[in-house]
Write a structure and sequence with these properties.
Helix content: 40-55%
Strand content: 5-15%
Shape: globular
Distance between the termini: 56 Å
CATH topology of the domain at 2-196: Rossmann fold
Radius of gyration: 20 Å
Structural class: alpha/beta
């Protein structure tokens, strides 16, 4: 695969960032307003730096970071990236983008942002990625992710491309990239939790009309201290409770022992709320 890379921001200092860590943390836990800002900003940067001088724009296929059932934060950012890019493409009489999905097989409870490069590869290296190769034939690809820290996910994308003999031209796009290799990969954990320090910090995010559920917030809630979880979940809307339950089961989190206590409580609360709401 003939790949090129573009990142909107470069991280070269662990104390000063070119974007707001608080906003990034909210984005990672489902803030749809910030996802819109990031997706739009990435599209603007991509157009200005990579497409603006091109005479002919090919048919693009946009592919978000791999997921199983629950979308990632990147998936929401991708929606707004596509929205802005499509308007620009249509305005210049170029074909609007198509979309494809990378399916992944394995789900895990570990927080990826806490791991170093070796641990990341050990964790993700056993995963399997799958994509509809036939759909991609003759098109240029855009692989989208929110941040590049060690390149582990990127390596898995390239491995998948080699496995399926994908020889398309491709862009690897990131909102941000860690360029200073002297900075420990755990800087990602700092960014992820700059705003969310505990489960109750999620309240202003999940109560916002533009909240968008993702894998990170689902895992974080299910992995919370049971006492804190009980207080948190009892104060959520029936819609949120059922959404969280559906996402957890769809991603097979009911098979993870560490989530069992909170998932059992979640099902109990969902039944209670259904009784209150529907009278049966």
């Amino acid at each position: 695969m003939d790949s090129r890379k573009y990142a909107r921001y470069q991280i070269d200092n662990e104390f000063t960032f070119p974007f707001n860590p608080i906003a990034y943390s909210r984005f990672k836990f489902g803030d749809g307003n910030i996802a819109k800002s990031y997706g739009t900003e990435l599209a603007v940067g991509f157009i200005q730096n990579c497409l603006a001088n091109e005479v002919v724009i090919p048919q693009f296929v946009v592919i978000s970071s791999p997921y199983s059932f629950i979308p990632t934060a990147t998936f929401v950012m991708k929606n707004y990236f596509v929205s802005y890019l499509n308007k620009w493409l249509a305005g210049h009489d170029f074909p609007v983008v198509q979309e494809a999905k990378i399916h992944r097989k394995i789900t895990y409870k570990e927080d990826y942002g806490e791991l170093d490069a070796e641990q990341r590869m050990a964790l993700i290296g056993n995963d399997e990625f799958h994509i509809d190769v036939g759909f991609l034939k003759g098109k240029d690809l855009i692989f989208l992710d929110d941040i590049r820290i060690t390149g582990s996910h990127e390596n898995m994308i390239l491995k998948m491309a080699a496995q399926y003999e994908i020889d398309n031209k491709a862009w690897l796009l990131y909102f941000a990239e860690l360029t200073n290799k002297q900075i420990h990969p755990k800087v990602e954990n700092y960014l992820n939790h700059a705003f969310v320090k505990n489960i109750f910090d999620l309240i202003p995010i999940v109560s916002n009309p533009n909240f968008r559920v993702n894998t990170r917030i689902t895992k974080y809630i299910l992995n919370a201290d049971p006492d804190a979880f009980n207080i948190f979940i009892q104060n959520q809307s029936p819609i949120f409770v059922e959404l969280l339950l559906d996402m957890a089961i769809g991603n097979q989190y009911h098979q993870i022992e560490a989530y069992k206590a909170n998932l059992d409580k979640l099902q109990e609360v969902n039944k209670q709320l259904n009784y209150i709401s529907y009278g049966n």
